[in-house]
Specification:
Blueprint: E1 10-11, H1 21-28, E2 32-35, E3 49-52, E4 56-60, E5 63-67, E6 76-80, H2 83-86, E7 89-93, E8 97-98, E9 105-106, E10 108-110, E11 115-116, H3 119-129, E12 136-139, E13 145-146, H4 150-165
Parallel strand pairs: 1-2, 2-3, 7-12
Antiparallel strand pairs: 4-5, 5-6, 6-7, 8-9, 10-11, 12-13
Helix pairs in contact: 3-4
Amino acid sequence: MRALGGITSIAISHPHYYTCMQDWARAFACPVHLHAADAEWVMRSDGAIRHWHGETLEIAPGITLLRLGGHFPGGTVLHWAGGAEGRGALLSGDIVQVAADLTKVSFLWSYPNMMPLSGATVRRIADTLKPWPFERIYGAFPTRQVMADGAGVVQRSAARYIELLQGSQA
């Protein structure tokens, strides 16, 4: 990592990934940005941890954290305006989960138990992402990336998800 220029900030989407963030922060002398809504899940406090409030936090020019909630109240994605050759990229973790069909994303409250989020929550997530342009979505797992029309994929997937929750199976 140092050979590539180092790390100036660490941002973590939600508590499932908190693990050894303090050690990485010390190794690279940088802060860890976590949404305050998930502060109770930090098991080892550290001066490097920065709990942020609100709906967005720009951690560097063109790099903005967006609180979407859902999976966890502070569930965060990272919008990278310069990603995808300037067309924008979303680093989503599993807050917006890239599906096996890479033309779709999903939204779950509990992945191990396959428990869905409410339609209202999914609509709020989709509406929150609407003003942020992004071509690509980099999901939580190596083969889970949307390489084209990421913003459209989110909007279409959210609409279908809500439609299915409401019982419309056309």
